[in-house]
């Protein structure tokens, strides 16, 4: 992994990738670099205006790119099902990059009544992966990569209160949703191994990357001071989105990536080239993974 960067991405010609939340930040960079290496890329975004603007930008930066926009609102299971339904029988899907996410938002609920962070960050991607899994399983060498965060260390999931109905603390809820991302990959990798599939399920995190994720919650509530502090932190301490996308790109494309691996920046999980990342022990708990999986199937109505 030493010094690994976007130029090391293997040729992706003939491959198809779906990147959620590809309209900005590390999602956009991920989609752009995959397209630069020849992949057909679907930018799966909630906002059509922002998604098509990102598509135009990508095509200007990568002339001849095979890229398209797909409408996907991870906070609405009807939208997830509609998006998944656009993949016809026989169509290959080599890479599913579960990148989209929200962070430290005020309490809210998705269209289906789930707490927003858990609903978007975990349940939406759980449903999407399950609905697309037949295409993934039929594609040799396919991978599923979920983007978690070092903030997963803030909290384990509370299986008895997945929607934070007893008490809502925005950062704890965020940490739980990111733990859920890692537990999902852990359990998916186990199930794929039992099946004897060569599909690789892996996770990554960007470290501290400068994106609009940090300021969204404060902006929604009009907390100007908090928003300015986040903006200052982005300018002073964060690495650029181009660097933040590298762990995801590594997990998605580098040879030899192991199932259930967790890749992040080398330097204190903060910045630098991709490397194996520390993860909390609770993200490797088989029983917790099984419980979360069963609850996720029940909540979404998507069974694998």
TrEMBL record:
Keywords annotated in UniProt: Oxidoreductase
Highest taxon of the lineage: Bacteria
Coiled coil spans: none
SUPFAM superfamilies linked to this entry: NAD(P)-binding Rossmann-fold domains (SSF51735)
Family matches, as InterPro entries: NAD(P)-bd_dom_sf, SDR_fam
GO terms, molecular function: oxidoreductase activity
Family, similarity comment: Belongs to the short-chain dehydrogenases/reductases (SDR) family.
Protein's recorded name: SDR family NAD(P)-dependent oxidoreductase
